Amino acid sequence: MKISLPFTVSLSLFFLLFATTNSAAQIKYQEGYVVTMNQDTVHGVIKEKLNHHGFDILLKKSASAKEAVLYTPDDIQQVFFIEGQERYRSKSREVKNKNIQVFFKHLIAGPIDFYTYVDEREKEHFFVETEELGLRELLVSTTTIIDEETGKAYFKTIKRFLGILKLALKDCPNIYSNIEEVKFFEKSFINCILAYYNCTGEAHWTRTINFEKRKKIVLEYGVFGGVNYLPFTSKINPDSHIALPGSAYGILNRVYLPKAPYRYSIDFGVSVFQRPLRNTLTSELSSTTQVVFPVRVSQYFFSGNFRFSGSTGIELAPSRDHSTVSFRLGFGCDLKLNKRFRIALLSNFRVTKFRQADVGLVLFFS
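User: That's the sequence. What structure does it adopt?
Assistant: Structure tokens below.
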């Protein structure tokens, strides 16, 4: 199906889409309080202010107040969001051989504290803290084992965290069998520590947790704009028109596969290609607009804020006369701006006709 829209209208639609999605990503203030280093409790409405290593806190005395006070992890001991019962504590962590203060998410509080922290590489860390042990990270490692008979190598996971858990939970030896079965993810650690509190009867605070509603896959929404080139071919007279580079814009959503987070994703969305056409006989300009639906699988190389990617997939172009499906290859790179925003430079080529391509910038948010 051919759709013809003026370029100014198309551009306006793109910026309207961008403004709408960007405004939807704004974080609202929530009721809560902070505990300062002097043990003072300050109530108000708070929200996160993102930075490279996590976030700071903006606090207003009321929702109608105009000015907000900025608190960093160096300024306060604890942050509590009343909605959702989320608590964060300021803790020291080593980054590039320097100790900095960041906010750990505090999931269990009592004689044994349990924390999680997601670093700048999207890797989740787990910690326990007791008066005797102090703050200790729960670690796991992988080693290579060589089978002496066959000579084949295979990987074995070493639960380095078992020793720390046994020391931390030694007051209740009845749950040692539970400790041996612990797996390296949040729900398993929480269940084990709660089993300890059920055994000892110690008073504790636990964040309200609903594992069924936990996000098991990561979804990013994106809007993009760029250029495209799709050579025009006329069945009657192939030389009657010349296609010029045109605009490309649309929506591209990204779903990361849960078993390999941030290594593989499925991208899908809708793209609008607008091309100017010049008649070789009259030199008159006209335009054509094509709507396509891309679906592709992407793989990412290197971890961290900056990474490269390769993709393969299909692109469906519906038309009143006949719809077409083309196979596509893509290459690109992306840069994580902060906790919620990522910008990507992506290229997309048709496998059989590399002259058909589009290149653009995508702003992803989650």
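The mean pLDDT is 81.
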